[in-house]
Amino acid sequence: MVDRSTALGMLIAIPFLASLAMAELVASRMLKRRYYTSALDAAASFTSGMWNLTVTGAGLIFTFVSYEWLEAKLAVTDLGSSPLSWALTFLTLDIGFYGLHRAAHRFNVLWQTHLVHHTPEEINIASALRNGGTPISIRFVILVPLAVLGVEPKLVLLMSGVQLIATNWYHTCFFGELGPLGKVIVTPAQHRVHHAINEAYIDKNFGALLSIWDHMFGTYQPELDDVPPVYGLTRPLRTYNPLRMDYAHWWQMIKDTVRAGSVRDKVWIWLAHTNWRPSEVASEHPVAELKTEAQRRAYERYRPEADLLATAWSTAEVVLQGVLTMELFWWVSQGFLDRPAMIVFAGMLLLSIVTYSTALDGRPHTILTVCRFGVAALLVIGVSSVGWFSLPTDGLFALTAAVVLPFYAAAIVMSGVAKRSPAPPLDVTAMAVA
Are residues 213 and 258 in the same domain? Predict the structure, then answer.
């Protein structure tokens, strides 16, 4: 579970990033740029971001060891928070991100921890929020040098937060290479290349804030005028549901492990390069994959259908979810929630996300809306009448209950009224042709 200061930072980050995305949306409409072509796609990006924040905030990610533990065990000096430690922390985190980022693209077992960020099939500020909530983090590896140097934990936390927020701005099509700056910092053009699946672009430009590492280690690729980027995954997940996104690749690996005939293949599935599958398993159980440049350029973006009412309702779901997520972090920042309470309320928010993201996919979701309403009503009764948690029930919580319960009840009705339909499935046979 995050501490109170981190919760406050998350509380501030949500409206800040949402405002950036809204400003870009307004600018793109005014300038007649098609940078936001689907309201549901943007809703899915915001949803994924809130899923990630909620999972992280509730401490549902296993991190092996904390930075505080590493520093206590490994520190050989004490740089504290000196000017030198600020510079070293920035550079160490940046090159560490480069290495971990590149490894996540390279190794099959690590790809799931990052692939959600590559699911958007158009690039905008909203797409920057598309991040997964897989339950395992190996980020501690890049913190080891800082622990050895004895950099203060608060500085590491602060610089990590700054790095995270600062990587959002270049998810845009408004700017290009930015001239000589591109030799030093990551630019929008460079990051568009990173998100592209064109043969000329794939697995390039891994930098976080500095592009010097890509130039040094041979992974830099400029955006080419004659190669328009195609965004997404070579194995499209075709879903807006964060829960499905978070485990799709690992689930495929588990199935492939069961199906593999040799022990070597069963082990190698987890150690091999990204998307590797035993040949006999791949031939008997093909998956939809865009293998050629022609297929990637011809790919039609994932777009479930929704009428105006369904789109408006989904937008309202996302807005309410954002408010509830902010409220959750407000409670944590004020010391109202301990870890058990945080997990309970986070679980409620995650259930809500699964419910309405299933609707975003155009899938049947009435049962989920009924369950969501029932769980929310039980939680309100438990807090207000039974005293499960020591929240100030006469203020913010009472107002929240008065809004949420009717909204969730209306969602049950809306699930049968608003018109939705899923996107057509990919032709697995056609996509599997080399």
Answer: no
